[in-house]
TrEMBL record:
InterPro entries registered for this protein in UniProt: AMP-bd_C_sf (IPR045851), FlgMring_FliF (IPR000067), FliF_N_dom (IPR006182), YscJ/FliF (IPR043427)
Source organism per UniProt: candidate division WOR-1 bacterium RIFCSPHIGHO2_01_FULL_53_15
Protein name according to UniProt: Flagellar M-ring protein FliF
GO terms under cellular component: bacterial-type flagellum basal body, MS ring; membrane
Subcellular location: Membrane
Gene Ontology BP, a term: bacterial-type flagellum-dependent cell motility
Length: 231
C-alpha cells in the first residue's frame, strides 16, 4: 500500500534517522556551550584579578581563594588568576586582608613580628628592606611596569670620617612587551624614590630596564657618580 501510494518505507526511515541525529546534535552542542567550568562559571563569566605573579605569590593566592570558597582559574602558565566577575571585589579584599599578593618583595609587614635579640644592625637592614619593598610595590602600580626591584644603599655613619658616601638607589624595571616609559614617568619614579629615602638626592637614583638600558639617562638626568669609599 505504501509503495502504491508512492512512499518508500526505507526512505522514510532514512529521513527519520537524519532528523533524530540532527536534533540530538543540536541539543548536545547547546548544553555543551552552556556547561560551566569545573568549580566555577563559564570562561565568559571570569575576570583576571592578578597577572605576572611569582610562583610563591600564585600558590598563596590560590590557597587564600580556597579558604574564601571562591572559584578560580589559573592562566598564563600559573602567573595569572581569574575569578567570577561577581566575586572579583570579594577576592581582592580577601587577598588584601592577608597582604597578598606580596609581589616578591617585603614591605612594612616585616616589622609585624618583633624579633627577640635583634641588634641595631638587624633593625637597620630590616628598615632598608621594608623601604625597598614598599617602593617596588608602588612602582609596579605605574602603567606599563610589570615588575620592579629597588635596591637602596644607606652607608653606615662612621665617626671621625671626613667624608661619607652618599645614599644611593637603583631601580630595575621589567616593562610590558613593546612598552616604552615616557621621560616624565621615569622622572616620576626617580622623585618617588628620592622622596621616600632620607638624604637621597635625585642625581643618586638610577633606573634601568631588564635589557640594561639606563632609563634615567634617556630622561635627561646625569649619570650616577659614586663617591669613593673613605679610608
Amino acid at each position: 500500500m505504501a509503495e502504491a501510494a508512492g512512499f518508500d518505507p526505507r526512505r522514510l526511515l532514512l529521513v527519520g534517522g537524519v532528523v533524530v541525529v540532527v536534533v540530538f546534535s543540536l541539543l548536545f552542542f547547546l548544553f555543551r556551550g552552556c556547561a560551566p567550568l569545573a568549580g566555577g562559571p563559564s570562561k565568559s563569566g571570569l575576570t583576571v584579578i592578578y597577572t605576572n605573579l611569582e610562583l610563591k605569590d600564585a600558590a598563596n593566592t590560590i590557597a587564600r581563594l580556597k579558604e574564601l570558597n571562591i572559584p578560580y582559574e589559573i592562566r598564563d602558565e600559573g602567573r595569572a588568576v581569574a575569578v567570577p566577575k561577581e566575586k572579583a571585589d570579594q577576592a581582592r579584599l580577601g587577598l588584601a586582608e592577608k597582604k597578598l599578593p606580596a609581589g616578591g618583595s617585603v614591605g612594612w609587614e616585616i616589622f609585624d613580628e618583633a624579633r627577640l635579640g635583634a641588634t641595631d644592625f638587624d633593625r637597620r637592614i630590616q628598615l632598608i628592606r621594608a623601604i625597598s619593598g614598599e617602593l617596588a610595590r608602588n612602582i609596579q602600580r605605574i602603567k606599563g611596569v610589570e615588575d620592579a626591584r629597588v635596591q637602596v644603599v644607606i652607608p653606615e655613619t662612621q665617626l671621625f670620617a671626613a667624608k661619607t658616601s652618599p645614599v644611593t638607589a637603583a631601580v630595575l624595571l621589567r616593562l610590558r612587551s613593546g612598552f616604552e616609559l615616557a621621560p616624565e614617568k621615569i622622572l616620576g619614579i626617580v622623585h618617588l624614590v628620592a622622596s621616600s629615602v632620607e638624604n637621597l638626592q635625585t642625581e643618586n637614583v638610577t633606573v634601568v630596564d631588564e635589557s640594561g638600558r639606563i632609563l634615567t639617562a634617556r630622561a635627561g638626568l646625569p649619570p650616577l657618580k659614586v663617591a669613593p669609599t673613605p679610608s
